[in-house]
Structures are given as C-alpha cells and as structure tokens.
C-alpha cells in the first residue's frame, strides 16, 4: 500500500495552507505489494482480534502508547482497555505483526465452509462479443480471448455470449458448440421477455477452462458478423429507408448481469464480463443517439467541448449499480474509430470496478497483450477502503474509480482492484487551531479490507493437510492497514521544501477532470492556470521577491520559475504540458471526445509517477544503443539540436518512441538490436506498466516523424493556435508573470 502526500510536512493551520497556494492531500495505492519506499507489509493472522479504539474506531498500531492493561489511540488520544487475550498476545511482541510494523496485512477468519463456498471461489469470466461488427474486429477479439484463456487460473469458469439484434449464449461443454439465441426488442424501453436461466442453465453456460479450453477456441472460430440483411430484417426499414443498426449492447449487459447475479446473494465471489464493442449501442434499451457529435456546433451558445462530456442517458450508470449488486465487474474494450459516446458508457466499467479501453484501429491494437496482462496480475475484489485521520484535520474530497458507501462517510467500495489502482484524497482542517500544539502529530490510517482467490496449490503448500477440498480455489478475506505519521511545517519555506510535485499533479488532474465534466474544458483550463498564478504569487510573497515602490511592484524581480525552491521548479512545465495534453486541448485541435473520456478514465486511476510520464513524457538520449548519453531532456526541438546525440528515446506512458536523428551515423544498427541496453530498458518499462505501451521506431529524414515531433511541446502555443512567433513555453511563463502582477496588485 503506497501512500504519497503532496507535502511531507503538513501546513500548521488553515492560514498556512491557504497562504502557500499548494494543494494538501494524499494518493493511496491500496493493493500495491509494497509501500512507496519498497517495504512489504508484516503478514499475520487474527485480523478480527486487532483492538479498535472505542472512540474513533481506528485500529491499534505501532504508534499507539501501550501500557500494561490499556492503550492510547494514536489518532484521537482516547484511552482504551485491553482484553485478557490481547494482554497475553502483546506480552510476546515478536509474535504479532501489528507490534512489528505500522504496515500490516492480516488474514480474517473464513466464513462457514461448504461445497457452496467452493463453488463461490471459482473465478467466473464471461466474454460478450459484438457481432454487428467486421471480420477484422472479430479476428482481433478472438486472438485477445485466446490470450485470455492462457492467462486464466486453473479452476476458472468461462462463458461465451454474443450480441447484435439478438443475444446468443454458447454451450461449449458438449462435443460441438451449441448456441441459443434470444431476440432483443428494438424499443428503447424493451427488456428480454424470457429469463436467460430458462434459455440455458447457468452451469451449462459456464464451462471449466481446464477441460474445455479447446472447445471454447473452436466455438470462437464459428463467430461471424451479422449480415446487413439479417439486421435490416430484424430492425425493419428505418426512417426513409435508412438501415438501422443492430447493436443491442444495453439489453445484453443488463440480461447478463441478472443471469450471473442470481436472486439469493451472489452466485460467485466475483464475475468479470469482458464486453467487446465495435461501435455505439444503437438498438433496444440503452441505445445512444450519436447525432449529437455532428450537431455539437449547431447551438452556437453551447461550448462544443462541454456538449459531449456529460452522459446522455443514466442507463449505464444505473446498470453499473445493478452489476455491483450482482458482484459483476465489467471491462469495456471499444475497438472503433467512430463516435461511440464513451461519456455515457464509461460508468458501466469504472463504477463496477472494471477498466475502459479504447483502440482506434484493429491493425496495431495492443488488445491481446492488454488482455493477457490484465488477467495475469493479482487483483483483490469486494474491497472496502476507509481513511481515518487524527482529530485536527479530516478528508475533504475523495477521487478515483470507486463508489461511496451510502451510509458511512469516508468509506469507499471497490469491486475489483489491482496493484496499480490509485485513489486520492484532499484534506481540510477541523478548526482554526490546526497543529499548533507541539504534541500534535498528523496521523493517517488507511484500512483496506479485501478478498483474494487462493489457488489450490498454495493451500496445500501452506502446511495444511491436503484434503479433497483443495482441488477447489478458496476465498481468503484479508485486512491491510497502514498508519503513517507526518511532520508539521513551521513556516512556508519548510512547506515548499517538502512538496512532491507528482502528487500535486495527481490531485490537480482529478480536480480538472471534475471541473471539465461539470463546466467544460475551457473552465478546466482556467482553473489550472489560476492555480499556478496564485501559487506563484504566494511564493513570490513568501520569498520577498517583489519590491513595491509607490504602490507599483518592480516587475524584473518577479520569479515564476520558482528558482529559489527546487521542489516547485517542475510545476510550471507540468501545468503547461497538461494544458497541451489531449485531456484539455480544444475540440478544434482534433481531439476526439471518446479519446478525451478514455484519457479521463485512465489518468484518474494512475499512480503519480505514471501520471507524470503520461503528462510530461521522459526524453532520454543515447550515444549508441548500448550507451546512454543524457537521462533527461526538456521536450523541445532545441534540446534535440544542442544535445548532439544520435538516438532519442521518448516514454509517454501509452507510447514508446525510439527516434534516430537524421544526422545519426549510418553504421548504428536500426532498429536497436534485442540484446542492447536500450532494448533492455524498453522491455523493463513494458513489463512494469499496467497497459501495453505501443512501441514505434522512427528514422529521422526517412520516416514520418510527426508523431515524435508532436511530443516536443515546448515550442507549441499553449492554446493550440499553431507555432507562435515567440517560443511556446517561454511565452506561457511571460503570460503567467503578467497575471501574477495583476493578481498581486
């Protein structure tokens, strides 16, 4: 569980926080295998025996004062009694995890054991494939599912479903695959007239991967796109003879969620649906009107960047709530270059704990690699995340892909969480006093309760007697707790010196995404620039850099590059890069609304270092494929020319580019050989990443280098009106200087 704060020394009170201009908050990656310093938790059992504070319900931890019969809570100071069992346990401190480390991961006792519990522990996966699509789309989907079958743990159950103007369920457990179809009503309010359980019993639909892998593969081979003739017959002629589509995605998803989550609690511990879409749902309930994409400029009074960001129907948000109740997590893979309105569809994936992927073409799509990667890494499910703080402050807003508990404050539910998923919180003071007393130590406690599926071999290896039950997976419920203490900054210089710009960027990105969803992209951009202006003004004030004479400040003294504070120096570049990112670029610059939504979903789940790369890519240079020249360059053409290096490597998180300059020695091997340092670096980066980055090799002077040059943002105008007469980043700083002067006046 990695926890990173915007400032490692907290502001002393509200005045200090507001006077600094900095954001105050943390990012939390709860299922990360280690903390931000690479330390693993202390593992143990008896999570249910851990003492809790009677006042604030915080868990006992190493920062609590322990006496013979009692302990004082490190968050609220309350004195709590200890049970005789706890006194006995804590007399042997080396035997319990919570006495050894402030970061623990404890097993919780199992629920009642039965055959039903064994069935529950089987991981269930269902692929729902769009047949209103092309041959290329189906080929890509097949290869992605074949990769998925290789990654699935033994003992998993797999179901294959298809949708178009009808919903197809496959039984692959017999010698030849059998498909049963149900027609989807075309009306926007329609639902299926028959229960799927009556079409095919669930356990006939869900096949064990161990014994049926080949049969699933041969069923995939039978998939064909529905013909336009079939669709027209189903839909009837459209308006004035226009053919209606036949992609009944909404009804299919609704029916599958109901099918998997039976009436009486959940049939399985977790079911995951992989939904493969080749275009917008345009048939039956949940159909989306894509005409708004063409009409966004029609009403002149509306901001076109704002017009396409809100959802046009609550259908998919409501469906996500149904999925959550049924214990179903939905991953949406959209492979399309037409407007699909992901703004409406995204809720189904992000609110059910799934991911949203967008691939604009079938040709160079990384879908099979992403699928394999997603399924081979460990994940937790049925998670509850709770943040507690010491009494002087409290969480303000929380950000990330979770849904808040309807009853308890600061409790979030996450259906499915992998080791990369990151959430963010900002803080406010409870009162005007803040941390003014010397004894005040800002303390945070994050509790994360989750389940994991433990494969049979791990159970028999754990020293228990191997019984017939170990053939099954088993469910393990665990409790992970991290308690962190922070210092207090005694003045503004200490506060600035303890700043972590990557975490500041994370919180800013969350705030800007929310602002652009509510007010439009223009408003999001303004918010970002205003924040930088206020920060620069407060910094200049704090360092007494502005001299006033006759009420006019002397401009030449103004410092918007934060030259006296190394910790803040990267911020203007990060803000500039964020304004040049497709997340916040204007629609006129050719940013597709679906791509913007995809980036919103991706960026709001990334941990700070990854987000930093996605916003301001890392540019490195090499003298030869085996020898690095410089570890970091600014993203400008000037940096390329002055460095004189022949090879450049750009890591923009979703894309990796190796660029050989046009003046590079022709004897340098291109592309770089597989055993060189550059390739080793690339392979290591690809391995550590949550998505598969696209790898591109470019030879300057021969290949089209525009994709690489577009990342050299520092000469671009911040508003995207082409190359300016003055340099982009430089003129941006001049503009900020002007605004800071106005603000300070």
UniProtKB/TrEMBL annotation:
Alphabetical UniProt keywords: Protein transport, Transport
Example GO BP: intracellular protein transport
Q: Which GO terms describe its cellular component?
A: COPII vesicle coat; endoplasmic reticulum exit site
Please report a single Pfam family linked to this protein.
zf-Sec23_Sec24
Protein name according to UniProt:
Protein transport protein SEC24-like isoform X2
Please report the stretch or stretches of sequence annotated as the Zinc finger Sec23/Sec24-type domain. 51-83
Q: Which residues form a coiled coil?
A: none
Give all residue intervals belonging to the Sec23/Sec24 helical domain: 500-611
Highest taxon, organism lineage: Eukaryota
Q: Domain (Sec23/Sec24 trunk): give its ranges.
A: 122-374
Annotated Gene3D superfamilies: Sec23/Sec24 helical domain (1.20.120.730), von Willebrand factor, type A domain (3.40.50.410), Zn-finger domain of Sec23/24 (2.30.30.380)
Gene expressing this chain:
LOC101491138
UniProt keyword annotation of Ribosomal protein present: no
The text of the family note is: Belongs to the SEC23/SEC24 family. SEC24 subfamily.
Which GO molecular function entries does the Swiss-Prot or TrEMBL record give?
Answer: SNARE binding; zinc ion binding
